[in-house]
Amino acid sequence: MKINAVSLKTSNLIRIICFLFFILQSCKPLDIIISSKENLAENVKLNQNNWHLKDAQLDTTPGISLNKWYSQNTKKPKKKDIIVAVIDTQIDLEHEDLKGKIWINKKEIPNNGIDDDDNGYIDDNNGWSFTGTKSGSYVVWNRYEYVRIVSEWGPLFKDKIESQIIGLDLKKYRIYQKALKTFEEKTKYYKNWLKSLNHNLAVFPLAKDTLKYFFPKEDYSYHQLDSMYNKYKINDKSYGKRRNDNDKDLGALIFYMMVNLQVNQKTLGDIKDRQIQLDSIVNKNLNLDYNERLSIGDNSTILEKGYGNNKVKNTIKGVRTIQDHSTMVSGIIAANRLNNKGIQGILNDVKIMPLNICPSGDEHDKDITMAIRYAVDNGAKVINMSFSKEFSMHEDWVIEAFKYANSHNVLLVQSAGNESLNLDENESFPNDVPVDSSNEICDNFIKVGSISMKFDKTIVSDFSNFGKKNVDLFAPGDEIYTTSADNVYKTDSGTSLAAPMVSGTAALIWSYYPKLTAKQVKEIILESGTTYDMEVLIPGGEGKKAKFSELSKSGKVLNVYNAMQLAEKVSKKKR
């Protein structure tokens, strides 16, 4: 998945990847992270207070004004239990803050092996896992979409030049060439990273034992190691150079441990865990011959119901769990507001419909399509999609699913992605504007970028994608405290966490004004956002600035209070 929080994601992983890239390329990379540590105490304090729910106040915090609306609201919702489908990973069904918040298919008799409601899915009591296997397990690793394209389209286009291609195949050929280039670049990159991790795994015990001489209790800090490094280093080699030369002098060993502290690898187990992940990326996500669909047993070339299984939470000994991301997303929308535990979601009168399509790697267009159709057919009003990918083999399937949702008055909300890219210049899927077109195919789709808690030039999260045409608005997605798998809570960042802010707001609007259309709810959310008249740093722009209003279609940040006020006005006009 390219889950956008990332997934599993993502924002922290991307930051680690970027950090390690600097390590491999430069001599003195370590001071680039220090500033974030200096602000850690302040961030923790703000996280505990749920900064994103506060009032949007100039010069203080760009919150969504949810608390303000609740403090002034005296009305009761007209419609309870709005269903929000979360198309994502598996979910922690037993989390204390999500108890009573999971959708139940009342037409289905649990675990009787019969499709009681005749919807094409047997025993779908709480949703469906489209990546569940025939044996009752689940897929952990998907290939990236560009790998699938190279594998499946290679026999058609390998070693051919464009002049040899005719007709409709020309479009596919150009996609294939782009995918092939991406595949070659990513394979080289990840193999290099895996090589560094394997080296780290080998030298970590020596580095640890050596430092024990100076710190018998092993209670050293990064700053202490930095001082030692400046004293004992014999050169300024980069990590990559030291790795290739197999350096084991004292300065090098200190340097290796500093790197580990920076990416939170404090034990040999931490390094092994990351090494296992990277090994799987190289040998599964990037493997042309790996086929994750074999264990599912479906026909990946056609759309069909019923493949997968009903286990939206599935814990199997010896198999990596993938329940964290959806749990984080769902908590932002639906965490119990009345139990005095953990966090407060956007609204209380809501049910989460978990739909699993997101292993590690890229989602299949078939799974995206069938999950959307399942959500629509089973009563969802909002569909949250906190994932994206760079390629799409069956874009037409997903486009038709978007139209299907639109025809049934269902709102689609998607995260913009965490690559610091301008989506007006870089393709990202799924999207409501097809490739080779400039027109939106539906009016029920919102793409959401992420803002930080800082009301200054860094208000746009440095990882967030943006685009005047292809990103609709921004919402908080940086340093968000939310529910997490295994019944805990944690802070994470990513556009994955910005999207459910919008999904929850849409559900809140519908719970009070149920007669509004999906198009109206979209317009209300975009028109009612907070405007910030300021220049901001462009993500990935190397210091370049732009007006905040130029980074999204609306030029605004989600504001729940304003949205509810406008929804009331629109609802009255409609009556």
Task: Describe, in plain words, how this protein is organized in 3D.
The chain has about 575 residues and is an alpha/beta fold. The protein is built from 16 helices and 15 strands. It has helices spanning about 10-25, 35-40, 40-50, 65-70, 145-155, 170-215, 220-230, 240-245, 250-260, 270-285, 325-335, 365-375, 395-405, 495-510, 520-525, 560-575; strands at about 55, 60, 80-90, 130, 350-355, 380-385, 410-415, 445-450, 475, 480-485, 490, 530, 535, 545, 555. The strands form five sheets. It has a seven-stranded parallel beta sheet with strand order 4-5-3-6-7-8-9, with helices on both faces. Helix 5 crosses helix 6 (about 170-215) and helix 7 packs antiparallel against helix 9 (about 250-260). The longest helix has about 45 residues, at about 170-215.
Summarize the structure.
By secondary structure, the chain is of the alpha/beta class.
Basic shape: globular
How far apart are the termini?
A: 43 Å
Radius of gyration: 24 Å
What is the SS-derived class?
alpha/beta
How many beta-strand runs?
15
Q: Low-confidence parts, pLDDT < 50 over ≥5 residues?
A: 6-48
Largest sheet: 7 strands, parallel
- Order of strands in the sheet with most strands: 4-5-3-6-7-8-9
Report the helical percentage. 25-40%
Number of helices: 16
Percent in strands:
5-15%
Secondary structure blueprint with pairings:
Blueprint: H1 10-25, H2 34-38, H3 40-48, E1 56-57, E2 61-62, H4 66-72, E3 82-88, E4 128-129, H5 145-157, H6 169-214, H7 222-232, H8 239-245, H9 250-262, H10 268-285, H11 324-334, E5 350-356, H12 365-377, E6 382-385, H13 395-407, E7 411-415, E8 445-451, E9 473-476, E10 480-484, E11 488-492, H14 495-512, H15 518-527, E12 530-531, E13 535-537, E14 545-547, E15 556-557, H16 560-574
Parallel strand pairs: 3-5, 3-6, 4-5, 6-7, 7-8, 8-9
Antiparallel strand pairs: 1-2, 10-11, 12-15, 13-14
Helix pairs in contact: 4-16, 5-6, 6-9, 6-10, 7-9, 11-14, 12-13, 15-16
